[in-house]
Specification:
heterodimer, A: alpha+beta, Alpha-Beta Plaits, 3 domains, two-stranded antiparallel ribbon, elongated, B: mainly alpha, two-stranded antiparallel sheet, 17 helices, 4 strands, about 55% helix
């Protein structure tokens, strides 16, 4: 018999050493484990698309969560390439299924306005390739001010750090100048920072640079992210400007 | 047991190839940084594009495939013909385990006791089945154990930052202490080295990662396990190895043993990386063989060769024929005989 034919025939009737002998039951059990994982991951509250972890801030260009998880292979390329050390391996922020997927932690680093390196290196395009002009328009979250910690708000002290660093062409952090009392009861004018949710892209540089340590007085959460129409503060984007 | 002979040139060629791919992996890892202006290094995803497991899982789970991942078809094609050659010659994670396996001590006798095939080596196939079925219904978690993902993630979030911190601390300490005799100072030597490392190896700023401890410990565990079983990860865990084992379960390139020359010393098994039972050609397991050529190299009687079963022709005796095959052969013989008589 022609050896080539024999070789091809061996795929139909494998000889003893070419058989893996895995056993039907065990293979079936392994397959069922795969299905079971799907079911268990499926009852994580975040899968309902009603509950959102505020810390689940994905890199700019990340696909909608379901698609993102279907593509991300947790390789850490984005974490390595990020020049500001903003991207970290998730613990349970995205559920068990999301372990070691990339999330941004703005207490360590921020998303640089002029940078799209994570989208350049993602091997599976779970972070789709976005050029810098497009990336600048992608909201990855929204900053909000903690009035109990913010120096002008809580202590009537002058501080404009967040507004200074805000990278958007029209600053997403603006000031309302108001007359307040200081701790001695004297009147003084102070600039209180406010966030414009239409302009803020959630890059988090305000949180990284905020001089209030421990927990910054301005922090970013995932709400308002472009990739996820369900995770919004108001029903339609842009409705802040109209009011 | 017979005396060990000189390492064969194919083993040296393999080591060279492995080193080359390992260095390429490290180079691409270090290239995964910011280059002016706003460019990542070129081709940093090369090894992921070679990985058919990542391609298959992404395709199943997301019904889409990145074009560059078609490169993994090359890996599949070669595996189809040459078996798990990829594991033994290319995979940088496999090379790492190969290296630490070679560091383990112990006598040949001890290695023989644990070196053979073990039923638990099937575990990786069950893992693969689980991952693939999960991917089929949209859950893609193969990255937890995919070797390139595992290796790259461990390096980027844990091992590299730790080494970076250690190296900087060491050179800073030398710089501050500046030991030496008279005018001859240690920094005269160390500062140029530090400058070189700073330029080509060290991170611009010390990276820190949440949860890096767990990732690092898991990585070190896979490395340490090599001291208990040769290439533990590749034998028992690696889902990519399992995929290649399934694809390459009936390769054209096969181990062939000359039974007349063999004196059953079992030296071939001592350094077998995959537990593929090279000592028994009837039981040789292509799905576990990394084609490392150690058995061929170690055999003092030169009884083992790797040959293409097509080039070998029909004269080969690479397995015991099954009753069906015996029957078929007898049939052919009879028919030929009958044909000759008719003529």
């Amino acid at each position: 018999m022609n050896p080539l034919h024999k070789w091809i025939g061996d795929f139909v009737h494998p000889p003893k050493e070419a058989r893996l002998d895995l056993g039907r039951r065990a293979v079936l059990a392994a397959g069922l484990a795969g299905l079971g994982a799907k079911l268990l991951f499926g009852i994580d509250p975040q899968a309902s698309k009603r509950s959102f972890n505020p810390a689940l801030i994905r890199p700019p260009g990340a696909l909608p969560e379901e698609e993102f998880l279907a593509r991300c292979i947790r390789c850490g390329e984005c974490m390595k390439v990020c020049p500001t050390n903003a991207i970290h391996p998730a613990s349970l922020e995205g559920g068990v299924e999301g372990i070691w997927t990339p999330i941004l932690n703005m207490s360590v680093g921020y998303c640089d306005y002029e940078c799209n390196l994570c989208s350049q290196v993602c091997p599976t395009h779970a972070i789709r390739q976005v050029d810098v002009p497009e990336k600048k328009k992608i909201k990855i979250g929204l900053a909000y001010i903690d009035k109990n910690r913010c120096l002008p708000w809580a202590y009537s002290k002058t501080c404009i750090v967040c507004e200074e660093h805000c990278p958007t062409p029209k600053k997403a952090i603006w000031f309302e100048e108001v007359e307040v009392l200081n701790i001695q009861g004297e009147k003084l004018m102070i600039k209180q920072p406010r966030v414009d949710p239409d302009l803020c892209i959630g890059c988090g540089i305000c949180e990284t640079k905020c001089p209030v340590k421990g927990q910054a007085a301005v922090r970013v959460t995932s709400v308002g992210e472009t990739r996820n129409p369900e995770n919004q503060i108001l029903l339609s984007p842009g409705s802040f400007g109209e009011g | 047991m017979a005396k060990k002979k000189k390492t064969s040139w194919i083993v040296w060629l393999r080591r060279l190839t492995q080193t080359g791919f390992f260095l390429l992996f490290c180079y691409l890892f270090l290239q995964t940084v910011y280059h002016p202006i706003n460019k990542a290094g070129r081709g940093v995803t090369f090894f992921f594009n070679l990985d058919p497991l990542v391609a298959l899982n992404s395709l199943l789970a997301s019904h889409a495939l990145v074009g560059a991942m078609l490169l993994s078809l090359v890996t599949l094609a070669v595996t189809f013909i040459c078996g798990r050659w990829f594991c033994g010659w290319v995979c940088p994670f496999g090379t790492l385990h190969n290296f630490f396996t070679s560091l383990r001590g112990g006598r040949a006798k001890q290695k023989l006791e644990v070196g053979g095939y073990n039923q638990w080596q099937k575990a990786k196939y069950y893992g693969l089945v689980g991952f693939l079925v999960a991917a089929l219904v949209g859950v893609n978690v193969v990255g937890w154990l995919d070797p390139f993902s595992f290796f790259f993630r461990s390096l980027s979030t844990s091992i590299y930052p730790a080494i970076n911190k250690g190296v900087v601390a060491l050179f800073t300490w030398i710089y501050n202490a500046n030991p030496g005799v008279g005018p001859a100072r240690l920094t005269v030597v160390t500062e140029p080295i530090y400058g070189f490392l700073r330029k080509y190896f060290l991170a611009v700023e010390q990276p820190y990662y949440w949860g890096s401890m767990l990732i690092g410990v898991l990585f070190i565990t896979t490395v340490v396990l090599n001291f208990f079983r040769a290439r533990f990860w590749c034998r028992y865990v690696c889902p990519l190895g399992a995929l290649l084992g399934v694809v390459g379960k009936n390769p054209l390139v096969r181990l062939k043993k000359n039974e007349e020359k063999c004196d059953s010393c079992r030296l071939c098994l001592v350094d077998c990386q995959g537990g593929a039972t090279p000592d028994n050609p009837l039981e040789w397991k292509p799905s576990e063989c990394f084609y490392c050529w150690n058995c061929e190299s170690d055999c003092p009687a030169q009884a083992i060769t790797f040959t293409s079963c097509i080039a070998e022709g029909r004269g080969r005796n690479r397995r015991d024929p099954s009753p069906r095959q015996v029957g078929a052969q007898n049939d052919t013989a009879l028919r030929t005989e009958a044909g000759e008589k008719a003529r």
